[in-house]
């Protein structure tokens, strides 16, 4: 199985769980040093030694070359986890078009490049694609407009894959809220200087408790095993999504209250 963004954060935690469950894990990310350390960590308790390849997944050709190499070396790609991504903090009115483009490249094109390159192998293996989006893939939220836009595109791409290829490919969309991490407040310091305090908070101040990455990873593995289509965490946010879909004006009123 291939995990993009497997050298850090949720991708690394997922890689550890899958490797301990017996999968041959391949980590993809850009920074070779981080990849090497991640591979050592994942190796602990793994049945099969993990592999790692440095690649910039925003680059379609590089991505295709790496996917072809993995297919040649392993003979099979049955699961692809699209977890690479990044978020930024900006007020919408101050978000330059170039930043939208960058976020689309980081959060959407990374997944598109990798999935389209691996599709023939995934289909041949009657495999599975897991797309790690975000709650931001289904709702607007202040200060993360470009991220919201890119994750919404990702959610739509997963839905399209499921519709057109769902008879030969399982597709799981994961929509997690903020995930607990050690550098929570320092992460956005540089860009959040001129923004309200909430810009520094996980999920730009979303009023939900940070998710435990280990627990989330276990839930993703189990949802993938069961062939689930979607996983929303915390699950209670599903109610907000349903309200927004059924009663758009009320949904907007509620969202405004939550974001005050
Ligand atoms: N953290 C949260 O609170 C949260 C909440 C909801 C959803 N998510 C989503 O969950 C995923 C993981 O988030 P995280 O915070 O755990 O991530 P993270 O710790 O920032 O790690 C991101 C990973 O993606 C890789 N990556 C980024 N750009 C890449 C590129 N162009 N090509 C190849 N690899 C690339 C990074 O490695 P290199 O930099 O070395 O390339 C790294 O391995 C993301 O998609 C994120 O949007 C996160």
What does this structure look like?
With 260 residues, this protein is of the alpha/beta class. The chain has a single domain, classed as NAD(P)-binding Rossmann-like Domain (Rossmann fold, 3-Layer(aba) Sandwich), CATH 3.40.50. 47% of the residues lie in helices and 12% in strands. The chain contains eight helices and seven strands, in the order E-H-E-H-E-H-E-H-E-H-E-H-E-H-H. The chain has helices at 9-20, 32-43, 60-74, 97-124, 145-165, 213-226, 237-246, 248-258; strands at residues 2-4, 26-29, 51-54, 79-82, 128-132, 170-176, 230-233. It has a seven-stranded parallel beta sheet with strand order 3-2-1-4-5-6-7, with helices on both faces. Helix 2 (32-43) links the parallel strand 2 (26-29) and strand 3. Helix 1 (9-20) crosses helix 6 (213-226) and helix 3 (60-74) runs parallel beside helix 4 (97-124). The longest helix has 28 residues, at 97-124. The model has no long low-confidence stretch (mean pLDDT 95). It binds NADP nicotinamide-adenine-dinucleotide phosphate. NADP nicotinamide-adenine-dinucleotide phosphate (NAP) is lined by residues 4-5, 7-11, 28-31, 34, 55-58, 83-87, 106, 110, 132, 134, 176, 178-179, 202. Residues 4-5, 7-11, 28-31, 34, 55-58, 83-87, 106, 110, 132, 134, 176, 178-179, 202 line the site of NADP nicotinamide-adenine-dinucleotide phosphate.
């Amino acid at each position: 199985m291939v995990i993009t963004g497997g050298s850090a954060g949720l991708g690394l935690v997922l890689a550890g769980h899958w490797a301990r469950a017996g999968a041959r894990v391949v980590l993809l990310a850009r920074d070779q040093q981080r990849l090497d350390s991640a591979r050592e960590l994942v190796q602990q308790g793994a049945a099969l030694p993990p592999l790692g390849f440095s690649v910039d997944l925003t680059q379609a050709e590089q991505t295709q070359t790496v996917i072809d190499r993995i297919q040649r070396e392993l003979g099979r790609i049955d699961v692809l986890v699209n977890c690479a991504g990044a978020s930024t903090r900006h007020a919408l009115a101050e978000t330059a078009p170039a930043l939208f483009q960058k976020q689309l490249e980081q959060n959407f094109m990374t997944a598109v490049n990798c999935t389209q390159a691996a599709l023939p192998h995934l289909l041949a293996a009657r495999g599975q694609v897991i797309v790690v989006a975000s709650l931001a893939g289904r709702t607007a939220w202040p200060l993360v407009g470009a991220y919201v836009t890119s994750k919404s595109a990702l959610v739509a791409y997963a839905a399209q894959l499921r519709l057109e290829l769902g008879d030969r490919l399982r597709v799981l969309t994961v929509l997690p809220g903020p995930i607990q991490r050690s550098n929570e407040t320092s992460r956005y310091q540089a860009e959040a200087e001129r923004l309200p305090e909430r810009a520094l908070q996980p999920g730009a101040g979303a009023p939900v408790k940070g998710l435990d990455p280990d627990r989330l990873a276990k839930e993703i593995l189990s949802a993938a095993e069961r062939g689930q289509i979607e996983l929303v965490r915390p699950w209670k946010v599903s109610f907000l999504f349903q309200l927004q879909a059924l009663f758009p004006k009320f949904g907007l009123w509620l969202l405004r209250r939550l974001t005050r």
